[in-house]
Amino acid sequence: MNVLLLYNPKAGTRVFPDELDRVIEAFQNKGKQVIPHRLSGTDQMEAFLKNQDMESVEKILVAGGDGTIHQVVNTMMHLDIHKPIGIFPTGTANDFSQYFGIPKDIDGMIKVALRDTVAHVDVGKVNDRYFINVASFGNLVDISQRVNEQAKNVLGVLAYYIKGIEEFPRLKSIRATFELDDGHMEEDIFFALVMNGKSAGAFRKLAPFSDISDGLLDVLIFKKCPVIEIVLLLMQVVNGEHPKSDHIIYAKASRIKVSCQADLTSDLDGEAGPPLPLEIQVEQKRLQIIK
């Protein structure tokens, strides 16, 4: 059986290409033929996957960060590919892989990727796009898109904190309408997150009650509040204490509709997403993640 290896050479500290031979050797020693593909664009990746005999493919390995996994999963969903995914978390934050406790050292990554055990996990859908970890909109949510690659490589997740603090003086609220399953609400908010996983950016306890296989998404709405109270709120977020805050609405839902009068776009796993309005839903246990 063949194993496809899709790797982003620019992810994180850009060291994964130096480890390619070790990965290939480990799989060859198990009688698996690795077919590597250097990621440089979604069109090229889609063409590569279309040309593969999927009947002979055992699993698909992905080396990169959340954005890389996001692109691969969207392509797999578009092509209706159902294969286990092995993750080599070589990006900056690696939130999705954090959920499964995948090691950060290359030997540990290889050990996990060689396994046959999988977790059947949910994937979120926003309009005609998919997300693995988080969909968001409002102020601050596109920070990961605006932090330059050099800063991320040098500072890691600290770069997200610094960029966020820079944005505080310009923080403005927006009026948004939410439909959560059968519920309805309208709020003045700073931003909102719809979580499939537990963490985003550098916040490891952002959705402490999230279960990635329960068929539900965790919705966090950050309501408008005095800017001076935001620092305390962020400290609560770091410690996972924010669900009890008066400035947060924390709910679970399988279907969410979001609209607002402002001209806003969304962010999906750190990548630019579709503009509002958004229709969000869950495709339960659609992905197989090697663990």
Features:
291 residues, alpha+beta, Rossmann fold, Tumour Suppressor Smad4, eleven-stranded antiparallel beta sheet, four-stranded parallel beta sheet, 9 helices, 35% strand
In short:
The protein is of the alpha+beta class.
Question: If you had to describe this structure to a student in words, what would you say it looks like?
Answer:
By secondary structure, the chain is α+β, with helices and mostly antiparallel strands. The chain folds into two domains: about 1-115, Probable inorganic polyphosphate/atp-NAD kinase, domain 1 (Rossmann fold, 3-Layer(aba) Sandwich); about 130-280, Tumour Suppressor Smad4 (Sandwich). Helices cover about 25% and strands about 35% of the residues. It has nine helices and 15 strands. Strands 5, 6, 7, 8, 9, 10, 11, 12, 13, 14 and 15 form an eleven-stranded antiparallel β-sheet that branches. Strand 1 (about 1-5), helix 1 and strand 2 (about 35-40) form a beta-alpha-beta unit. Helix 2 (about 40-50) crosses helix 3 (about 65-80). The longest helix is centred in the first third of the chain and has 13 residues, at about 65-80. Mean pLDDT is about 90; it is low at about 150-165. Pfam families: DAGK_cat, YegS_C. Belongs to the diacylglycerol/lipid kinase family. Its cofactor is Mg(2+). InterPro entries: ATP-NAD_kinase_N, Diacylglycerol/lipid_kinase, Diacylglycerol_kinase_cat_dom, Lipid_Phosphate_FormReg, NAD/diacylglycerol_kinase_sf, YegS/DAGK_C. Keywords: ATP-binding, Kinase, Lipid biosynthesis, Lipid metabolism, Magnesium, Metal-binding, Nucleotide-binding, Phospholipid biosynthesis, Phospholipid metabolism, Transferase.
